[in-house]
Amino acid sequence: MARQQQKKNQTSSAQSPRERAIEAYDSARERTRDGIDAAPIMALGGGLALGALIAALLPRTETEKKLVGPLGGRITDGARAAASAAKEASREKLSELNITREAGKGVVQSVLDGIGEAARTGGQAAVGAVRNKG
């Protein structure tokens, strides 16, 4: 990686702005391809989110309102019902596994207590070591 950067720095002064732009484009394309190869599901989710954002920002046409209007309402209602059912099922499963807000607070408190105890023990050991040296 460092060697590529060094090579890039050496050749960038001899390249024209057009060549540097092409090289930057190729580099960005390669990084994007690597990212998609590493996490294709994340890339798909990102693409869907971007598409939904663009669709939300664009105004609706009259034709779209006539053709999709009634269907859009049904889709929205169905999505709300699905989200509600998923939320409730998730809550039930978490509760069944005893993964609740109260249990989470208990875990956090236990971790904090453990950290405090470790700090006290370490401090006492340090003081004891200094006293024994003196």
Automatic annotation (TrEMBL):
Q: Where is the composition biased (Polar residues)?
A: 7-16
Alphabetized, the UniProt keywords read: Membrane, Transmembrane, Transmembrane helix
Domain of life per record? Bacteria
Q: Which residues cross the membrane?
A: 38-58
Q: Where is this region: Disordered?
A: 1-21
Q: What is this protein called?
A: Gas vesicle protein
Q: What is the organism field in this record?
A: Sphingomonas caseinilyticus
